[in-house]
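Hi support team,

I submitted a single chain yesterday and got back a structure, but I'm not sure I'm reading the token output correctly. Could someone confirm the output below corresponds to the sequence I sent? I've pasted both exactly as they appear in my results page.

Thanks,
R.
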Amino acid sequence: MKKILPAIAIIIFLGIIFGAWYIKGYNNVIALNENVKNAWSQVDTQLKRRYDLIPNLVETVKGYASHEKEIFENLAEARKGYFSAGTVEDKAKAATQIEGFLSRLLMFRETYPELKANESFLKMQDTLEGAENRISVERKRYNDAVRELNTYIKSFYGRFFAARAGVSEAKYFEVAEAEKEVPKVKF
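Hi R., thanks for writing in. Yes, this is the structure output for that exact sequence:
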């Protein structure tokens, strides 16, 4: 009996260490996954704010650029595409399309001098630029959270815990290649 007690104590001690390691690793992957979801929620909130501003900006510009109907229609369609998107990837794709259309819309001020001086347009432009800055910050935070989760999942033990928790790699919010080109505005 004296020889069995130390062996049982060692087994119990190793069991406690393994249990603590397992709980810590499992909780870590869950926390990282929740961080990614929270970061996306912040991006989504800022994108919605941007899309709530767009109709007001469009109406302001429409008075000066009524013949530029195509860009307004494209912007409205892209905005609808964002709200009908079901996945993070689809929402990210719709968001990058909107960015291209918005830059074209804001370039109208160069062609329409009276629009440049319009107080409501200037306020809208400042608000939209602020929203774009917030989106940029939140997109970076989201991508940082994705990087942290994906790095952990790709690690030796992280893969084990991710499989146990049902957590998979997250997708980065990347700008599409077509959206990286400078927009061309023709009048």
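A quick pointer for reading it: Confidence is low (pLDDT under 50) at residues 182-187. Let us know if anything else looks off.

Best,
Support desk
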